[in-house]
């Protein structure tokens, strides 16, 4: 991509073009936005996750905290250019709904077991419902969901079931953000 972003290899750019809904012009715009937060030469310092949480587009959506943790460098607690692009790629309205739901599932599958149980599902609903219902109501919703007859294993939800259960309109309203 040249210039300030020459540290992104051609392979990095191709990977981002393949893994996100962005073309090269979009990538340039997003990386220029990234440079507003990481002014280091070639953007190598990364953006501290606390800074990301103060960005206007992100600050009002607690669900995105989970997504930041998915794209950050766990050693430095910073988001680097590729992670920044992927973050906004996951949120793009151009991203297929199945991909969004898969990423959302990964955000809550903190132990990497490829299933969500009571506590994780409670957190999903709490953030998706924007604290509009109290904890007792949430518990009833979670219990009802985990007792659904269509689950392969009662008491837990695997990714395929999660994709079927979570309504698209919830994803559109809580997990869609177009930066461009």
Quick description:
This protein is mainly alpha-helical and 180 residues long.
Give the arrangement of secondary structure elements.
Layout: H1 10-19, H2 24-35, E1 47-48, H3 49-52, H4 56-59, H5 63-71, E2 78-79, H6 81-91, H7 97-108, E3 115-116, H8 118-128, H9 135-146, E4 157-158, H10 159-165, H11 168-174
Antiparallel strand pairs: 1-2, 3-4
Helix pairs in contact: 2-6, 5-7, 8-9
Question: What report would you give on this structure?
Answer:
With 180 residues, the chain is mainly alpha-helical. The protein contains eleven helices and four strands. It has helices at 10-19, 24-35, 49-52, 56-59, 63-71, 81-91, 97-108, 118-128, 135-146, 159-165, 168-174; strands at residues 47-48, 78-79, 115-116, 157-158. The strands form two sheets. A two-stranded antiparallel ribbon has the order 1-2. A two-stranded antiparallel ribbon has the order 3-4. Helix 2 packs across helix 6 and helix 5 (63-71) packs across helix 7. The longest helix is centred in the first third of the chain and has 12 residues, at 24-35. The model has no long low-confidence stretch (mean pLDDT 89).
Reading the helices and strands in chain order gives HHEHHHEHHEHHEHH
Distance between termini? 18 Å
Q: How many β-strand runs?
A: 4
Spans of at least 5 consecutive residues whose pLDDT stays below 50 are none
Number of distinct helices: 11
What structural category arises from helix and sheet content? mainly alpha
